[in-house]
Prior knowledge:
Number of helices of chain A: 13
CATH topology of chain B: ABC transporter involved in vitamin B12 uptake, BtuC
Largest sheet of chain A: none
Oligomer: heterodimer
CATH class of chain B: Mainly Alpha
Radius of gyration of chain A: 20 Å
Number of domains of chain B: 1
Helix content of chain B: over 70%
Largest sheet of chain B: 2 strands, antiparallel
Mean pLDDT of chain B: 91
Strand content of chain A: under 5%
Amino acid sequence: MSTDGTFWRAAWIGLAAFTAFGLILGIAGKHPLQAYLDTGAYVLGSLEGFTELFVRMGPLVMAALAVAIPARIGLFNVGGEGQIYMGALFATGAALHLAQAPSWLLLPATIAAGFIGGAIWALIPALMRVAGVANEAITTLLLNYVAPLAVAYQIFGPWRSPESSSYPQSPRLAEAATLPVLPNTRLHAGLLIALACLAVFAYVFHRTRWGLEMRAIGGNRTASQHLGLPVRAYVLLCMALGGGIAGLAGMAEVSAIQGRLVAEVSPGYGYMGFLVAWLAGPSARAIAGMALLFALISSVGDILQITQRVPFAVVNILMAAILFSVLCAGRRR
Amino acid sequence: MIAALLIASVAAGTALLYAALGEIVGERAGIINLGVEGVMLVGAACACAVGAMSGNPYFGVLAAALAGALISLVFAYAVVDCAANQLAAGLSLLLLGLGVSALIGNPFVGAVMPGLPSLARMDALVALVLPLTALIAWGLWATRWGLQLRAVGENPTAAFAAGCNRRRLQYQAIALSGMLSALAGAHIALGVAYTWAEGMTGGRGFIAIALVMFARWNPWGAVAGALVFGGAEASQLQLQAHGVDVSPFVMNMLPYLLTLAVLPLTGKRGRLAAPAALGRPYRGVE
Lengths: 333, 286
């Protein structure tokens, strides 16, 4: 977004995607213009609507980093969704089992467990990739379907809260295991963690030797291998770091938003994060900006669901329209 | 119990086989399509909508096939004409399918659908799948069209030099592949579940993609694979029906874990069977 040309290109793509989505909604007998106006009023006209953008920006930035870090060395991590669920699962496990531990230890342990859960879930496809067994795109996608089942197993079984018999969920996490929340809003420290991760990523990738080596591997893996770069170690490390950061997003949802483990940890942040990272490329500022745009899009989805009884999943059309526009725009041969 | 298990495996494997056949046709033309799951959902939603409105499930199946081909054309435009990254375009197709199917299926949530008439769980789509496998195997290996399509998937530049129309062949492959994926969705909706639910195909599209590697890009190999994976899905239901005390959530993980477990079995020789130009955007002259 640095030069005027790219800004106008982005503007055109956004306009095309929102128009296409509006047309499809119109054909389906809905009122797209009203939905856009309602979203505008909600986001700009209420504190809740405005802060909600930043509440969602956090997990989106982390889910985007989960994709962006492996993408720099040419890997496709499409497993952000599963890694978020695993992070939530591990974080809850730590918070519940260490509840007797000193309170200063509980939050760091919960955060670390979330990271480890996501990292493990990303290491499985990374190991399969390094072993030359399977492409990570398909394995990460398959694992996305396993992780929510593991969460469901725990909250329907061992961790089921005794006080809520009708609705399966874990017991409430201890106060000391929850991230600080800004009073009167849902804004929480997860956003700060996300932005810190983003800053570290930007510094490491653009300013250090490791970033340079990552760019070399992303540019030409075979040549890097012949140069003696530890390509396999980078594959494992980048996937684990990416998965771990996605796990932090799951941890934050459990620790700050829900306060307990529930069946639906994420409304598809993993997939949205993939789009954010894909559209933004290596620039940290672009990742932050795109995450905010996708937070806005998910608000459109909420508004459609509430005011026009359209399923939230319909907003996926808008995301697909944006990605298709970018993939097709200006690249026609 | 064995007979019941076999019948259930065939019912569950049919949808996987349709989707895998579609993916094989596409990948043989050099196009990897991660959006199968989305197209399956569109097929399921259209089958339900048209089946419920017309009262005739066969109209639903036809509508699904048509819709699957149509929605795949968006993907075809991106990867064939715009040389877009196929993995990213496939994921866009997945999201598009998720959204479009939610929109189409929404009025029919919870309604019971007119199912395909069946005899011992054999409905028209189950009966058609083996003849269709034979037809696709014949088309890919015994016709000029199939030879040209596979040539485009192996080496588009050489295929062009030999007079193949890469653009037309890839469009045909993607449309046919979309049609078959949508039939898979239609079978899940009208042959197994008899209802519409959001995301009801539950990742079977991705299992089908893995199945294609397992089958070494061969339609007959996909038949064997579909029976194995269909068997995993069916045995989970059979065990539950016989009161075996395993958490349903753990059982539901089985098909995905099994898929991950068999991927190494493809082996090095198996992976060499992949079309050489698979997944590479073509940027040559034409």
